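Reopening this one. Same input as before:
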Amino acid sequence: MRQTVGQVLGTVVLLCAAQCAAQSPKIRTLSEQEVVDLMVGGAIQGTRSSNTAQMVERAKALLAEGKQFKIISVEDLPADWITVTAAGGIGGGGAWDYVRDRIKKQNLPTVTNPTALGVKALEQHLGEKFNAAIRNEAAGATLNVFEVATALDLPVVDACVAGRAKPELEQTLTYIAGVNTTPAALVTRWGDVLFIDHAVDDYRYEDIGRAIAVASGGGVSSIRGLLTAEQIKRITIHGALSEAILFGKTVREAKADGKNPIDALLKVSGGHKVFEGIVATAEQNGNRGFTWWNVVLDGTGPYSGHKYRVFVKNENIVSWLDDKPDVMSPDLLYNLDTDTGQAHNSAGLGSYKVGARITMVARAAPAPAWRSPKGIEVIGPRHFGFDFDYVPLERVLETRPKFGD
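Same output, byte for byte:
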């Protein structure tokens, strides 16, 4: 039977549509509840205090605007896609106050989304099109990457180049794997755009980015780390966003069911409760684009009579139990609200609120590369000036006292 021209064209269109559908990557749109759980869990992953409620509020505002939170699994990434690491803010304490004062007098307007501005600027600068974004770290960067992705209609890869929050830019699995972070763009909150076509290494990019942050009121957005699908599959922590959703869901459901959210989180995370207490002192020092805290907790319950000290450089780095080194980076140390299981909420980067009831939870480093010689070099205790070697969490747990909780 002969077909008409219209029938032939219709068949061709259907075949093309079927072929395109087969070639289109699988992208999942998150529900509102998943978005909320993602913010809660991303804050937990952050190894520091976090204003989780504000993250949730901002995420819900994006949803109310009709934005969609879309993720793509590492396995579904097309081979020819380029993914950009939307790092969000570099910075901390020690900004140049005179710059802040002068800009206030100038009444300079700020841009709505400097990171998204930087992504578009870097695309234009390089003549490239980025197909997806990936989270640079946990904590607030979980929200930030979706603020960028929803503004530019990009999916976010269900992975992370760190699996935690970390104070310095070279502290990534990509750097450990030998992938240079440049070319990159730095964008201030007022819309200044700087391109770094080449940095000698990520340490130098950290130096440059931190200097710009200090000169820019304490923060600057960093857009960097252009990764191929092969690099993402080989280097990054797969399923990092799914884990965050699981963490948020776990503490939410445990609390709703009248169960202990910390215990529930320990079961799904493989973490270990290492201390419970009340924040007795929290001394802060902001300088050179970082915020340092020295925190002491007085033990409660089984930990009564004991003290726990934490050194914070933006994030929890090293802890001591009764003056003996305890959990240390690159292993993870979460400071969680004892009642809710969420990341402790306190004003200021890495801060602890005096009088707060805190449960400290430790987990092994989220990727083997963190425990490699180079990983320990960039984020182990000696990197932060301490005169002792990194001791893996498993060995710490073997020798520390048993508290029976």
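So the earlier flakiness isn't reproducible anymore. For the record, The chain has a mean pLDDT of 92.
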